[in-house]
Amino acid sequence: MSEILTETERRSNKSPLSGVSFDGSAPLLEVEDLEVEFHTRDGIAHAVNNVSFTLREGETLGILGESGCGKSVTAQAIMGILDTPPAKVTGGQVRYRGVDLLQLEEKTRRHIRANKIAIIFQDALSSLNPVFTVGWQLGELYRKHAGASRAQAKSKAVELLDLVGIPGAPARINSFPHQFSGGMRQRVMIAMALALEPDIIIADEPTTALDVTVQAQVMTLLSDLQREMRLGLILITHDMGVVADVADKICVMYAGHAVERADVYEIYERPAHPYTKALLESIPRVDQKGQDLTVIKGLPPALVDPPPGCSFHPRCAFARDRCTTDEPPLYEVPGNRLSACHYWEEVLES
Ligand code: SF4
């Protein structure tokens, strides 16, 4: 039921995955040295530079960073939905169960995109079609891609709305997107992502547009479903508070680079990169009344003209002369972690 085929492929009864051999023992997803450029009028923007990480079954990876740091571009490159041009994947691999997705034909990628890896976008209202009921939109996935009858598709749509905690699902399938609250719409988006039983869900700022209480409900739902279904979940956010409770490991991005990678506990307990440290210090504390809000001075660099050396140096409290000329590699830090800072030991001790 979960296999997605286009009408033509379904009629010809030939799966686009025939001839692709996945390795069940390989990690769900391995991103290795991924590079993405955007060709703009101002020059080439290096949006993603040598980004690597691994996601295993049942794991949640949080990708953190300010707007424009390359988080969403990384997600879109994994999904194969970058607008090309202006974007271009110029290097690296995106392996799903050992198979490099970047080398596959578009029809095979399209199949994997919905069937194995699904994405939830930030803005549910613009992701859903306003002129069709949510039941129709959910059922369409089954009708189009799995050959379900109208009755089967309808009952699947009800099942999914029920699964994501929408009360009165049999009646709500007849509602249009604008008749749902923001939180309920995001639940519909989660239902759509789960519809074809993917192995991986990428949630790109799934709760940014929601108020804090609804944000917590949606995150709890996502993390409960992820645990129950043993999904690999990539959670993209600029909010360190959102991922603290649900992520197993974190990749912090800055100016298109992964600058720190570690288990969630390590990152929050003792960051090994000044940027991570500054992000943590900028979270307001409810237990400290009257405190001044801490901000990271300056702005992220323009990706068409990043500063030489370490791209964080104009904003870094730990910067020295060397930082303005030598780009830091990802240093191995005790505790199975990585930091792109020449002075990570000093940061750990601070
Ligand atoms: Fe700061 Fe230098 Fe480390 Fe970059 S390499 S984060 S500028 S101390």
Describe the structure.
This protein has 350 residues and is an alpha/beta fold. The protein has a domain at 248-350. It is built from 13 helices and twelve strands. An eight-stranded mixed β-sheet has the order 6-7-8-3-9-10-12-11, with helices on both faces. A hairpin with a 2-residue loop joins β9 (249-254) and β10 (257-263). The radius of gyration is 21 Å and the shape is globular. The structure holds iron/sulfur cluster. Residues 274, 310, 312-313, 316, 318-319, 323, 328, 341-343 line the site of iron/sulfur cluster.
Write the layout of secondary structure elements.
Layout: H1 7-12, E1 29-40, E2 43-55, E3 60-64, H2 71-79, E4 87-96, E5 99-100, H3 106-115, E6 117-120, H4 124-127, H5 134-146, H6 150-163, H7 169-172, H8 182-194, E7 200-204, H9 212-229, E8 232-237, H10 240-244, E9 249-254, E10 257-263, H11 264-269, H12 274-281, E11 331-333, E12 337-339, H13 344-349
Parallel strand pairs: 3-8, 3-9, 6-7, 7-8
Antiparallel strand pairs: 1-2, 1-4, 4-5, 9-10, 10-12, 11-12
Question: Descriptors for this entry?
Answer:
350 residues; alpha/beta; eight-stranded mixed β-sheet; four-stranded antiparallel β-sheet; 13 helices; globular; binds iron/sulfur cluster
Gyration radius, rounded:
21 Å
Lateral strand order in the biggest sheet = 6-7-8-3-9-10-12-11
Structure annotation, total helices: 13
- Provide the succession of SSEs: HEEEHEEHEHHHHHEHEHEEHHEEH
Mean pLDDT: 86
Helix content: 25-40%
Report low-confidence residues grouped into runs of 5 or more.
none
State the total count of DSSP E strands. Answer: 12
Structural class: alpha/beta
What is the terminal-to-terminal distance? 54 Å
Instruction: List the bound ligands.
Output: iron/sulfur cluster
Major sheet: 8 strands, mixed
Query: What is the global morphology?
Result: globular
Which strand-content bin applies to the residues?
15-25%
